[in-house]
Amino acid sequence: MDLRSSVELNNGLAIPWVGFGVFQVPPGEVTYRSVIMALEAGYRHVDTASIYGNEKSVGEAIRASGVPREELFITTKVWNDDQGYEKTLKAFEASRARLGLDRIDLYLIHWPMPSRGLFKDTYRALEKLYRDGLVRSIGVSNFLVHHLEELLKTAEVKPVINQVEFHPLLFQPKLLDFCRRNDIRLEAWSPLTRGRFLDHTVIRGIAERLGKTSAQVLLRWDLQHEVVTLPRSTKENHIKENARIFDFELSDEDMKALNSLDEGRRIGPNPDVFAG
Ligand code: NDP
User: Which residue segment(s) compose the domain that 97 sits in?
Assistant: First the structure.
């Protein structure tokens, strides 16, 4: 396996197991250079969002890289203010124009925002974009089990992905199991805990024993849970380090030790209340 290795989504589309995240990466030179470094290191999957403000730079880097478009998997997301059927269709066109792409590989609802009650209408717009061939797959982000249950009552096209905060301190085995049973692939954001727990004794202990880094152990944990993972970095050494996760394996014992770090601890907001 390597950075090009992929897994089949429920609609038959292949998604590379590892994607390059660009949240909080400043638009312009920094995003451009980071995406170029990632593509040169072999990443073939980039995860952006309209709210990140860097879709234009991602698109420029993709074109400048010379990597054939068909080798790439590009995700973007509809932001909270743009939820609703018509607004989402408009927001999609704006994202597509900024990225400079004919088609997006995966379009996600960024947050469920249950208090506004718009995610079903928003999802209908995603279904239209999918049927019109403008997106190759559609899904959701930050959906808890009860949001998914609600959506699945009316969805005509099953979401392929649920992208959520996921790392050993927020393991969410019930959500993982629900997604598995419903053939919705889980995708991990903040897989590196935004760097906050790389010094955790258990994580560092496993890494040192295996001659790996904490970051590599965390990303490997995702893969062994069959979760697509999205590390972010603007540093070339980290970008390369985060890609070297295919040459080792975590034992059942190590997996259990990491699973047991679960504290339900969120770095980001709780999807039930976040309406940002
Ligand atoms: P990550 O968990 O990927 O952590 C990124 C941080 O870790 C950066 O500060 C980076 O610093 C550092 N880092 C990266 N690699 C290493 C390494 N090998 N050793 C030490 N430190 C390292 O955080 P994100 O929150 O960005 O999550 C990843 C991606 O998930 C996002 O970029 C975005 O695409 C997606 N996401 C989606 C959300 C959603 O609501 N759907 C919410 C949040 C994120 P440095 O640059 O210095 O390497």
Answer: 6-259
